[in-house]
Amino acid sequence: MTGRVPPLAIAPSKSSGRDHLVDGSLVTTSSAKEVARAWESFAGGEDIETGVRPEILASWYRCRDRYEVDRTLDVAPGARSDDAQRVDNGVIFTALGGLGALAGQEVERDGAVVTVTDGDGRVLGAWGDPSAQRRAELHNLAPWSSWSEDSTGTNGMGTSLEVSGPVTVTGPEHWCEAFHQWACAGISIRDVVTGAPVASINISRWNASLSKFVPSWLTTAVACVEQEIYRRAVYEADKVIFEFNKACAQANGPFMAMDRGGNVIAANEETVSLLGLSGETSIVAGAIEPAQRWLPDISGLPDVVRWAKDRAQGATQWSGYACLPVCPGEEPTPLTMRPVVDANHVVGMLCLFGVQEGEPYESPEESEVGPLPRRIIGMRNDRLVLLAPSEIRYAEADRNIVWLVTERGRIQAATRGLENVERLLTPYGFRRVHRRFLVNLRRVAELERGIKGELFLIMDSRSHEFVPVSRRHAPELRRMLGV
After folding, report:
1. What is the pLDDT of residue 19?
2. The model's pTM
3. Are 115 and 201 in contact (CB under 8 A)?
4. What mean pLDDT is reported for the chain?
5. Residue 342 DSSP SS3
6. For residues 408 and 411, what is the distance between their CA atoms, to the nearest angstrom?
7. What is the pLDDT of residue 369?
8. pLDDT in tens, 424-458
9. What is the pLDDT of residues 241-252, one digit of tens each?
10. Could you say which of 282, 373, 431, 466 has the lowest number of CB atoms within 10 Å?
11. Quick one: which of 392, 425, 435 has its CA closest to 302?
């Protein structure tokens, strides 16, 4: 672990009216009572939009409607042992373990517990006040238990794995009633390549609030650990670019290299022309920095990359192919995947267009997809917004954050990642028209051509909202709109 972590103070410096404990209970403050009333209504089946912080309400919706977590649960279930942790995450867990042990010594005087989990919410270690640890163990807040949201509802560890940034869950904000006398704050550590959570660190305190400085301490602490993840990403990219350059001379036609997350690291000129990557000079030269990589606008490609990575694990000579719509409106093109392996781990993929080699990819059956949502959940200010798909004109991605442009203004989607939002909205007539934009075809008002032949969609004729259409999507879009 590199970098310096500041001292940790988890107890409020002095009592305030909001944090003051009456009868020694977290749940007797006026704000906690308001949340408890909202929890009773929501747990009883009502849909609510106010009275609870939006990130907590979004979590409650996941727990009730998607995960169906039993709110009367009082003990966390045991962790699943079917999936072993990746060995190459050992450095991260070692750094987090050291951080957790140091923090545990500092919080011991305040009656708190520090826990570290893996990316699936399985507790790997716990440190802190012995009496607080014994109380935590009554709820199985201990190693080899599962505190993911789908197992144990809204809590600091599990909810931090669902969202980016620090998360605080206090008193009745917990989904399970048995945990209403705990206050906790957690943050996830994420893979800079895939965006997936790798681990989390959490601080829990029984029957007492946490200092407002705890979230900022967590942010600083995990930044030190994330330096290790960044270094690994740069090292892996160097390996992938080396293999790409070796194979480039033998490649006939479009050829590119991707990282573990399906982002393009390097591509030859044929690929640049095919995918419209002109101007992406870092891709042609080789994008070592994660922020310089490019996500191809090829439907289904991320799923194929994940499949290929799983199939190639432990089989360095493996190859497989899938037929994907590289150019909208045209027949699917075969794409062959060959793994780039380092120390027995897949660190990237070489992709050949127009080549059909190895194991064929079979897409999951529609029956395996979960039920479609009746509403889309957004967040604005201190409120959760429930949207009918028809209210949304288009969605715009700002890296991993997605903004929904609606009659009620610009609202942040509770679901992160444009591809995830696309899965939710495609059944309602939404289509990708650009790598950053998803539009409701029913809400397209006008089409306009730019001076260089570019195509723009006007989604609202009153405000002249312009959505750019990439050249590769234009023919299919015209066909769909009948123009």
Report:
1. 41
2. 0.78
3. yes
4. 86
5. strand
6. 8
7. 42
8. 898 888 999 998 999 999 899 888 887 767 789 98
9. 999 999 988 888
10. 466
11. 435
What is the distance between the alpha carbons of residues 343 and 16, in angstroms, rounded to a whole number? 54
Tokens linked to 295: 């996500």
* Contact status, residue 136 vs residue 204, Cβ threshold 8 Å: yes
Please, what are the domains in the chain? Answer: 26-231 (3.30.450.40), 251-360 (3.30.450.20), 374-481 (2.40.50.1020)
* pLDDT on residue 5: 60
Between residues 273 and 440, the one the model is more confident about: 440
Question: Partners of 117 in the beta sheet?
Answer: 123, 200
Beta bridge partners of 167: 186
* Cα separation, 76 vs 157, whole angstroms: 12
181 touches 207 (CB < 8 A)? yes
Closest to 59 in 3D by CA, of 187, 146, 141, 169:
169
pLDDT band at 84 (very low <50, low <70, confident <90, very high): very low
Question: What DSSP letter does each residue of 210-267 carry, written as one string?
Answer: PPTTHHHHHHHHHHHHHHHHHHHHHHHHHHHHHHHHHHHTT--S-EEEEETTS-EEEE
- Tokens for 129, please give them: 């006040």
What's the CA gap between 87 and 345, in Å, rounded? 9
DSSP secondary structure of 2-18: -SPPPP---S-SS--TT
Contact partners, residue 62, CB within 8 Å, separation at least 6: 149, 162
Question: Treating both helix axes as pointing N-terminal to C-terminal, what angle do 54-61 and 30-43 enclose, rounded to 10 degrees?
Answer: 30
Read off φ and ψ for residue 433, nearest 5 degrees: -120, -5
